[in-house]
């Protein structure tokens, strides 16, 4: 969701299309996840799931695909997983590269990071810098520590997003006139902050 907000200036009618896209994505992905879980539990026996859990196997969906469709099912699922990783990485770079560009426009970073490619209409310098930083971190840092750190920072970002909505709406800033106002304000934001905080504590 934060990725969508980072590219708001590149979206037509962002006040309408961003909230609509987020809600549709959430609804579709939720239905898809529920379907995958139902199929996985239906294909695999409870004993098989217990054995996988005890052995530390975290691929019940792959096992279900292999059992349901054989080797072709396993291959299709593996390809889909790789494609999902690629699209996730693309979305991450897409969003992360816009932050240096915005900071460069505000004169907080060197001006070259705000340059936009005349051909592709993308901030190529910022994308190269962000991609290089990501590759360096993956190569030289402990991957498990990197994943935990990234997950924690993302959750903190979600907390700050919800807190900022409350702060900006309660401060009565005249220039703050969002076209979309989240429902059940401020209860849903307070619940999100508390839930994310508890999640960080539970992660250790």
From TrEMBL:
One of its GO terms (cellular component) is plasma membrane. It is a multi-pass membrane protein. One of its GO terms (molecular function) is transmembrane transporter activity. Keywords: Cell membrane, Membrane, Transmembrane, Transmembrane helix. Pfam families: AA_permease_2 (PF13520). The chain crosses the membrane at residues 20-44, 74-96, 127-147, 153-172, 184-201. Gene3D superfamilies: Amino acid/polyamine transporter I. It is found in: Cell membrane. InterPro entries: AA/rel_permease1, APC_superfamily. This is Uncharacterized protein.
